[in-house]
């Protein structure tokens, strides 16, 4: 009897989650952001860089092709030999009408090297509106107009954006993009629909300079692993609201080997666990295929088979394409395996750094980075 009840619960809850995810994903895909006003947006976009990443030039160039004018783009590295420097120099030549500044500053202000870079960049920002965005992000032409507009409301602390995966042409990269598109983004939309605002994503965080000063500047994040999450959390603790923009940006997914993808996703999952242990413990209900299989194994009734079929159809709808739907069972099994591993352990790899997530508010550097990786370690935004 207990096994039957457990199987019924697993099947129904997992299928219900899959259907909710499909509905909200569909709704988001058909809802366009309202037209943005053209004109001048005096905002400083802070871009911490590390190495000549794939599509780096193209991603940065999207900021130079905005429907507004007046933006300052501040790119920064720590290593004077970082190959990203040449990319920024080329950008300055190709877009002479755009205010693009390159900062080369080796100073380290804490264990989080990306935040060290941001501290150095912020000193060169000329405007009172600040936009922090990871280096592997491509944005639409109306991006700056949309993400800065809500900041006219003094009650808004930050504006952040969801993102979709843009994989290179490799199987594991496509599977990695599905981590974002099929699992992470739907989970955020469900949380958002339920009223939660406890999120902030490195893909984009826009805020006013006075808000940043109020929470202690980027220095308050210098020893935190999940710097993007805490940038939002500190503004919420100050009584300010978090806004999720209608704009969805694109992020590159470049892992071409299972080992690379596993390391990346394990870091995300362990970081999520460190921030919300109780919620993370119940994340298994979001892994549609393994949970439906387990539920049916425990309670193989015709009614539950019908429920599971509805869940599978919904899961395929969220995947979007036939090829992605066919990868969904493997995608969900890999997530389940990653979740099991993330339940234990405290170490994560961030570029060449190995860091600890024991303290949800900080990260202890446990191994010195290589010279190039110390340029900052902009890794992903992800659900931290």
From TrEMBL:
Residues 1-20 form the signal peptide. It comes from the Bacteria. One of its GO terms (molecular function) is ceramide glucosyltransferase activity. Coiled coil: none annotated. Gene3D superfamilies: Spore Coat Polysaccharide Biosynthesis Protein SpsA, Chain A. It is found in: Membrane. The chain crosses the membrane at residues 278-298, 305-327. GO terms for cellular component: membrane. The keyword Membrane applies. This is Glycosyltransferase. The keyword Phosphoprotein does not apply. GO terms for biological process: glucosylceramide biosynthetic process. InterPro entries: Ceramide_glucosylTrfase, Hopen-assoc_HpnI, Nucleotide-diphossugar_trans. Pathway: Sphingolipid metabolism; Lipid metabolism; sphingolipid metabolism. Residues 368-378 have a biased composition (Polar residues). Residues 356-384 are annotated as: Disordered. Keywords: Glycosyltransferase, Membrane, Signal, Transferase, Transmembrane, Transmembrane helix. Pfam families: Glyco_transf_21. It comes from Cupriavidus yeoncheonensis. PANTHER family: CERAMIDE GLUCOSYLTRANSFERASE (PTHR12726). It is a multi-pass membrane protein.
């Amino acid at each position: 009897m207990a096994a039957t009840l457990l199987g019924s619960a697993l099947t129904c809850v997992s299928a219900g989650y899959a259907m909710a995810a499909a509905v909200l994903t569909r709704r988001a895909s058909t809802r366009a952001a309202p037209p943005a006003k053209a004109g001048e947006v005096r905002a400083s976009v802070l871009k911490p860089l590390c190495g000549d990443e794939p599509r780096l030039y193209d991603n940065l160039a999207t900021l130079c092709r905005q429907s507004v004018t007046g933006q300052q783009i501040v790119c920064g590295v720590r290593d004077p030999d970082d190959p990203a420097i040449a990319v920024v120099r080329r950008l300055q030549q190709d877009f002479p009408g755009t205010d693009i500044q390159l900062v080369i500053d080796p100073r380290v202000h804490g264990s989080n090297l990306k935040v060290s870079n941001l501290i150095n960049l912020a000193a060169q920002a000329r405007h009172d509106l600040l936009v922090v965005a990871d280096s592997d992000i491509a944005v639409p032409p109306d991006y700056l107009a949309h993400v800065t507009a809500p900041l006219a409301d003094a009650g808004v602390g930050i504006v952040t954006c969801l993102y979709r995966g843009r994989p290179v042409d490799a199987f594991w990269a496509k599977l990695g993009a599905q981590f974002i598109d099929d699992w992470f983004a739907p989970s955020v939309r469900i949380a958002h629909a339920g009223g939660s605002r406890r999120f902030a994503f490195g893909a984009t965080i826009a805020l006013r300079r006075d808000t940043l000063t109020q929470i202690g500047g980027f220095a308050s994040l210098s020893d935190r692993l999940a710097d993007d999450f805490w940038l939002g959390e500190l503004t919420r603790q100050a009584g300010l609201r978090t806004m999720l923009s209608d704009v969805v940006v694109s992020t590159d997914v470049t892992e071409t080997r299972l080992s690379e993808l596993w390391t990346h996703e394990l870091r995300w999952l362990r970081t999520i666990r460190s921030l919300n242990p109780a919620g993370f413990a119940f994340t298994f209900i979001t892994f549609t295929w393994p949970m439906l299989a387990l539920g049916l194994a425990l309670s193989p009734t015709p009614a539950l088979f019908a429920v599971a079929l509805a869940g599978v159809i919904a899961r395929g709808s969220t995947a979007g394409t036939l090829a992605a739907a066919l990868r969904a069972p493997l995608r969900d099994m890999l997530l389940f395996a990653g979740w099991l591993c993330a339940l234990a352990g405290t170490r994560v790899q961030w570029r060449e750094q190995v860091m600890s997530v024991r303290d949800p508010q900080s990260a202890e550097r446990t191994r010195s980075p290589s010279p190039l990786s110390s340029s900052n370690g902009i890794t992903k935004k992800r659900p931290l």
